[in-house]
């Protein structure tokens, strides 16, 4: 195994992963299970919304022309012939000088073309008066004003959020065509690793990456198969990777991907005949992140260092999984923020800093979340975003404008622009 690895730019690495990611098939799920899934069919308006002209207020439906000439000195009186709440129809249309007392959401009676709000009237038994003329169409929610039948409202590939659910329900989608979720496996490697319930012993640490990746997947509403943790043993790891590949579409491993004596993942990729897309990325943390393909399988070899592992998942694994599901906005959303404190370290590589962003009166401010080496675990816990610092500079000072990648936001973006 050659120790020479050529780092490639992050953008190129992301592109390579995405180019080798295939879009999977779809399935139908009941509407109440569709939240968080990717739409595989566009939402086309099956009917006008609203489906009939209706009142947006509680008031009286009138013929606008009957209100002509009304003023404070010349109040015009109407005869109320009916009253309807939402869900009901007026018994008959109105004629000259007549009105229907109407509540929000009720269909406009025939011949009526304006609604007078209750507050704009003085009522007396079954009559009322008003003091201003109304225009034709005033205070009418017109059929189709929200959506016209046949119009494509949401494209396939959109992530289904609560608003999407509302639209699907509006059109009676009891079932929704969504992307099948990829089956993802997680395997942690490292002889030093203990399970979460085990007591610390000299030289050992608990496996934090496995549970972290599981939660990163859960945040995407993707289930996973855990292949537990294995020591740095080539045969055992090889066997488990083969088993995992037979059962999953995507295998995420952590650890063992570097150039150390006990880093066996590179050997395993070679033995499997997997195509390594890259094994060095010009980024910190996570420069050893390796991605390989084998048939339609994707293998993400994430670093064992927790911050590197976390970042590798968010930058490479997450968008690939979203693309597999047909997602059209697979990348983390980005915004500009002001750097909240100095970050004096020079950046030979593009740097991703776990950070906390907050809205202030001067706009969003992002501050590094503490100890920020690639081995850091505490800053991942505190961070709610990742600051992106371009390479080739001699550190950053408080107050500079920086790019920030937002974590845990439902809707991503379509383009990778870093
Ligand atoms: P490696 O990528 O195997 O060279 O590991 C890099 C560093 O990450 C070492 O200090 C490991 O002990 C640590 N590490 C590896 N795997 C894990 C894990 N699953 N959870 C927490 N730390 C880990
Ligand atoms: Mg290791």
From TrEMBL:
Its pathway is: Cofactor biosynthesis; molybdopterin biosynthesis
Which keywords accompany this UniProt record?
Magnesium, Metal-binding, Molybdenum, Molybdenum cofactor biosynthesis, Transferase
One annotated GO molecular function: molybdopterin molybdotransferase activity
Write down the chemical reaction(s) this protein catalyses. Answer: adenylyl-molybdopterin + molybdate = Mo-molybdopterin + AMP + H(+)
- Entry's SMART domains? MoCF_biosynth (SM00852)
Organism of origin: Sporosarcina pasteurii
**Which E.C. number(s) belong to this protein?**
2.10.1.1
Its signal peptide is none
Q: Which gene encodes it?
A: moeA
User: What lineage is on file?
Assistant: Bacteria, Bacillati, Bacillota, Bacilli, Bacillales
Q: What is this protein called?
A: Molybdopterin molybdenumtransferase
Query: The organism sits in which domain of life?
Result: Bacteria
Q: What does it do?
A: Catalyzes the insertion of molybdate into adenylated molybdopterin with the concomitant release of AMP.
Which cofactor is recorded for it?
Mg(2+)
Q: Which GO terms describe its biological process?
A: Mo-molybdopterin cofactor biosynthetic process
Q: Which GO terms describe its cellular component?
A: cytosol
Family per similarity comment = Belongs to the MoeA family.
- UniProt keyword Magnesium, yes or no: yes
Q: Which InterPro entries match?
A: MoaB/Mog-like_dom_sf (IPR036425), MoaB/Mog_dom (IPR001453), MoeA-like (IPR038987), MoeA_C_domain_IV (IPR005111), MoeA_C_domain_IV_sf (IPR036688), MoeA_linker/N (IPR005110), MoeA_linker/N_sf (IPR036135)
Q: Give residue ranges for domain MoaB/Mog.
A: 185-323
Do you know which CDD domains this protein is assigned to?
MoeA
The enzyme class is transferase
